[in-house]
Amino acid sequence: MKTSLEAFPEFRVLKRLNTPRRIQDFLDTVPINKETVVETCSSPLVTLRRNSAHCMEGALLAALALAVHGQRPLILDLKSARHDVDHLVALFKQNGYWGGITKTNHAVLRYREPIYRSVRELAMSYFHEYFLDDGRKTLRQYSTPFDLNKWKGDWITSTDDLWDLQNAIDDSPHRPMLNRSQIAGLRRADRIERDAGRLTEW
Question: What pTM was estimated for this model as a whole?
């Protein structure tokens, strides 16, 4: 990482977050950023100062914590159909298997254990949980891992919103999860699944 974290006391907490499990446990204590005043796309520094995060902000913070402990800061973008919103995951690898750290206000789309042989396999694990209130399943694409080290901007300490980074992730290479025939044949989530999907943490 090009940025020295020592100058920022907010980052001291990252030193003890030395496993994906600990990172996820910490992220779960951070209140959800409901963007009640204005939409944000904050760096980890601003996120820690504000003490709230939505999915992208949580993914960036998790990616930074992973990087502090020697892993590449990789982001997975789960892209939905036009009438839904994307979800971002911080990727990590243990013993050759992929896992994911996430920030969400819902009972689903959460942490993934490092048991997946490929990024596609991990991305597909979110498919059945990714639906609208009416049960329509909307997950359509997943990105190749986006390496934050290769992004030229300051994603760690910037006090400006990172809309350019959001656009770069959105425009990065994505792969389809299913074809048109499969989309046409999708069954809606059951009522009990939809009810569970409405559960919120914050």
Answer: 0.96
Residue 137's DSSP bridge partners are 131
Reply yes or no on whether the pLDDT at 2 is more than 60.
no
- Check: CB of residue 157 under 8 Å from CB of residue 42: no
pLDDT of residue 3: 66
In angstroms, rounded to a whole number, what is the distance separating the alpha carbons of residues 191 and 129? 13
Query: Which amino acid type is present at position 126?
Result: Y
Tell me the sheet residues that pair with 100: 91, 112
H-helix or E-strand spanning residue 68: helix 55-68
Cβ-count burial of 70 within 10 angstroms (0-12 exposed, 13-18 middle, 19+ buried)?
exposed
pLDDT per residue as tens digits for the range 111-137 = 999 999 999 999 999 999 999 999 999
Supply 15's token pair. 């030193």
Where are the chain's structural domains?
A: 9-197
How many CA atoms lie within 13 Å of 145's alpha carbon, on the beta-carbon side?
17
Cβ neighbourhood burial of 63 (10 Å; 0-12, 13-18, 19+): buried
Rounded Cα gap, residues 46 and 153, in angstroms? 15
